[in-house]
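ARCHIVE CARD
CATEGORY: sequence design from structure
SOURCE FIELD: tokenized fold
FIELD CONTENT:
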């Protein structure tokens, strides 16, 4: 009986101690709180200013939570998602924490997220004074990545902005007034700006540069694009002043196509209106046909030229008022204080002066040549006549209306006297002969060679005249490049 009781006690003890051995230690039941917030993201610039985070997810039994430790106006798409999208603002540096928690226990790791600052950029440059204008085309780089832009007037009275929320806007101000404008970029709570300062002028129209030698194809109708300037916020219109064979296809377009024909000079008017202000500018246009056109920048006078055998020959007598120098002299026919006219009449009207040009002594003929042009040599003239079949055939080809386009003019000559008041200046051979200086000069007797063309006999020949006391016509030449 005692053995039975003892065995029962041992079994009960064994069961009791066995159950106790199966109980776990409370410390061993705590899970490991390991946090890995992933990579940092620096200097990010993208649409919406956002990044996709890449933390190590929390174990299934635990909770992961994103928190912002530093930085303004950031937010998470899902604070408990390890790869949540995070939204920030440009120019901010954020310190983010990924916290793994178990009850009141937690562990965190951190990353940095930063976004580039807004960068407003102007796509224009402005001088201190906007010459000839009271308005301005405003142009900046368009906003990106969800930012918005707008222009504002910082300083200056009476100004007006048009389309101020567009990166391509317009400004209109008062005459001769100083302004400061600012192009702003905004995103969320952030704003950055770039400023320009300028002073307006008075309104002036600009029709473009005169073009008197436009080279196009061989077709009868000639076309070119005009190049006027239309001020910001202004309206304008083309008007034809002279030329009955010209057409402006769109009179309100500053770059309209113009249609014309060769060897006709057209004059247009570009009329600009901006509020109560009005301004006009003229434009001369000419298409090359038989003649090219050269404009002397010293006085703005233009001369036709014909291209023959690779040489440009002026087709109008030269008419530059060369200043008197130690030796150089020039006159209009019959226009000196002691003039004696044997044939013809004094050259006085603008039309006659355009037709006949001035008479130069040889010194002035050398000195007055525009850059790139020169007097022809004796050989240049001889070769020209020979290439046209000799003078008996060449004369009609070189005369007005001839096929070469040289359009010889028979302006006569002048024999200039000494300074004695008893002497006279003799003018002769107007509309009888055209005498043209060559570059030949004799330094011993101060004489030069002219080549003269005679209307009645349709002949030509050389003559020696005083380089100082004789006046003749001038036609310069240059190589056709």
């Amino acid at each position: 009986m005692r053995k039975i009781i003892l065995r029962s006690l041992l079994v009960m003890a064994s069961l009791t101690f066995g159950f106790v051995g199966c109980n776990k230690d409370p410390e061993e039941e705590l899970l490991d709180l390991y946090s890995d917030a992933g990579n940092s993201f620096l200097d990010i610039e993208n649409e919406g200013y956002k990044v996709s985070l890449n933390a190590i997810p929390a174990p299934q039994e635990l909770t992961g939570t994103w928190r912002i430790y530093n930085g303004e106006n950031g937010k998470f798409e899902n604070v408990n998602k390890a790869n949540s999208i995070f939204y920030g603002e440009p120019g901010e540096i954020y310190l983010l924490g990924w916290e793994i928690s178990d009850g009141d226990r937690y562990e965190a790791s951190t990353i940095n997220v930063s976004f580039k600052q807004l960068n407003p950029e102007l796509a224009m440059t402005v001088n201190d004074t906007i010459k000839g204008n009271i308005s301005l085309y405003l142009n900046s780089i368009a906003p990106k990545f969800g930012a918005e832009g707008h222009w504002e007037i910082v300083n200056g009275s009476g100004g007006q902005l048009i389309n101020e929320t567009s990166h391509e806007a317009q400004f209109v101000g008062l005459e001769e007034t100083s302004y400061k404008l600012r192009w702003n970029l905004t995103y969320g709570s952030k704003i950055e700006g770039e400023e320009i300062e300028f002073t307006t002028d008075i309104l002036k129209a600009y029709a473009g540069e005169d073009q008197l030698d436009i080279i196009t194809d061989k077709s009868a109708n000639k076309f070119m694009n005009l190049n006027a300037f239309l001020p910001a916020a202004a309206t304008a219109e083309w008007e034809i002043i002279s030329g009955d064979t010209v057409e402006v296809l769109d009179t309100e377009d500053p770059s309209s196509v113009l249609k014309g024909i060769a060897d006709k000079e057209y004059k247009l008017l570009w009329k600009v209106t901006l509020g109560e202000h009005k301004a006009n500018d003229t434009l001369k246009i000419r298409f090359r046909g038989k003649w090219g056109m050269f404009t002397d920048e010293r006085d703005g006078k233009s001369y036709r030229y014909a291209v023959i055998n690779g040489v440009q020959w002026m087709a109008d007598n030269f008419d530059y008022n060369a200043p008197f120098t130690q030796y150089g002299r020039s006159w209009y026919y019959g226009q000196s204080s002691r003039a004696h006219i044997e044939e013809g009449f004094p050259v006085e009207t603008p039309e006659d002066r355009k037709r006949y040009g001035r008479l130069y002594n040889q010194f002035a003929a050398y000195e007055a040549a525009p850059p790139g042009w020169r007097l022809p040599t004796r050989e240049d003239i001889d070769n020209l006549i020979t290439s046209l079949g000799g003078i008996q055939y060449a004369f009609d080809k070189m005369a007005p209306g001839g096929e070469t386009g040289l359009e010889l003019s028979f302006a006569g000559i002048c024999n200039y006297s000494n300074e004695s008041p008893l002497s006279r200046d003799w003018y002769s051979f107007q509309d009888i002969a055209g005498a043209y200086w060559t570059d030949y000069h004799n330094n011993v007797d101060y004489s030069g060679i002219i080549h003269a063309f005679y209307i009645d006999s349709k002949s030509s020949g050389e003559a020696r005249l005083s380089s100082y006391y004789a006046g003749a016509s001038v036609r310069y030449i240059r190589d056709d490049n």
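CARD ANNOTATION: The first strand starts at residue 41 and ends at 44. Residues 1-24 have pLDDT under 50 and may be disordered.
SHELF: design records, drawer C
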